[in-house]
Amino acid sequence: MASKESTQRRAQRIRRQIKAVSNGRLRLSVYRSSKNIHAQIIDDAKGHTLVSASTLEKDLKGSLKTGADTAAAAAVGKLVAERAAKAGVKEVVFDRGPYIYHGRVKALAEAAREGGLDF
Asked: Which long-range contacts does 99-107 make (Cβ < 8 Å, 24+ apart)?
């Protein structure tokens, strides 16, 4: 199992690479725990979160079997894309953090793309 320090180092390396290629675009950040998944669109220039979605929200929590599977991640991806469209956000940079682009993280990203986000 990876130590907390190596996980933080990996996340910072990914963010540094994203910052280099973002060209001022907003960042779609993903946090994955063992029981839930969270996504938020962040404006790094202002330091504000514009849009967020999580499996802990009441409307999603009741309709999902668990918050820790690819179906739940896809639901969060779709929800964050809908909320981004309402906020007028079309283009983002995907920040997978220290997580591999596989499984739940990939399901969230693909659902967000289908929902209209461009990255």
From this structure: 99/30, 99/32, 103/70, 103/73, 104/32, 104/37, 104/68, 104/69, 104/70, 104/72, 104/73, 105/30, 105/32, 105/73, 107/70, 107/71, 107/73, 107/74, 107/77
